[in-house]
Amino acid sequence: MKQIWLQDAIEECRKLCGGHGYLSSSGLPELFAVYVPACTYEGDNVVLLLQVARFLMKTVSQLGSGKKSVGTIAYMGRSEHLLQCRCEVERAEDWLKPNVILEAFEARAARMSVTCAKNLNNFPNQEEGFAQLATDLAEAAVAHVQLIIVSKFIEKLQQDIPGKGVKRQLEILFNVYALSLLHKHLGDFVASGCITPKQGALANEQLRLLYSQVRPNAIALVDAFNYTDHYLGSVLGRYDGNVYPKLYEEAWKDPLNETVVPDGYHEYIRPILKQHIRVARL
């Protein structure tokens, strides 16, 4: 999952840079070429998600056996509550409460897994069911993985974090991350019944407010990773911010710009252009 998110992030950065994002000097094409193959180095991500889904289906099948759910599936031990609970958000700021966010993600993950398990029981052959429901199973696995990340983020924020104002910034980033996931997968949350469309709209409202809080510190947060200009190798991601002078400098390094008129223009290109002009006039 990490590699897929990196791939999406690189592509998003490329689009936000406009045409400049295609330049080799932007550093983005090299990043894309390095990270995209990583999505399959350890196995195709869909195959891995389906393996997670099999584990979830096994967990659901054991819920009535008295076996305790532990680790990343501990929330399944409260499945009876999660299948019935309703989000109590009434105002946009209610989405800033970690327990509200966590329960919404737990309810979504549990309900999607239980629904898949019920649908699998309708097939006489379980393997045929896995084949037919592969899309739903993969989505249930994604919900489970996202819940793990959200829950671990909350656990970390409950600890003492050194540095003045650092914890506050991490809390804002957590809320942005969690609510952006909720926004992206709003259909899953609403369809599973854990939140209402109105509560989803309130989450989007709060997310917009959070963006305005992150924006003033965006550059400082990125610089905190301490990636040097040499490491990034990008004229667009320079520490000093002098993008356009550096773009102009890089452009002059292209062999085509070594002369005012490129070699071969008068011999090959100009005759073709003149020929087209004559044809157009006829």
Outline the structure in words.
With about 280 residues, the chain is mainly alpha-helical. The chain folds into 2 domains: about 45-230, Butyryl-CoA Dehydrogenase, subunit A, domain 3 (Up-down Bundle); about 245-275, no CATH class. Helices cover about 65% and strands about 0% of the residues. The chain is built from 14 helices and no strands. It has helices at about 1-15, 30-35, 45-60, 80, 100-120, 125-130, 135-155, 165-185, 185-190, 195-215, 220-225, 230, 245-250, 265-280. α3 (about 45-60) packs across α5, α5 (about 100-120) packs antiparallel against α7 (about 135-155) and α8 (about 165-185) runs antiparallel to α10 (about 195-215). The mean pLDDT is about 90. Its cofactor is FAD. Keywords: FAD, Fatty acid metabolism, Flavoprotein, Lipid metabolism, Oxidoreductase, Peroxisome.
List descriptors.
Butyryl-CoA Dehydrogenase, subunit A, domain 3; 282 residues; single chain; 2 domains
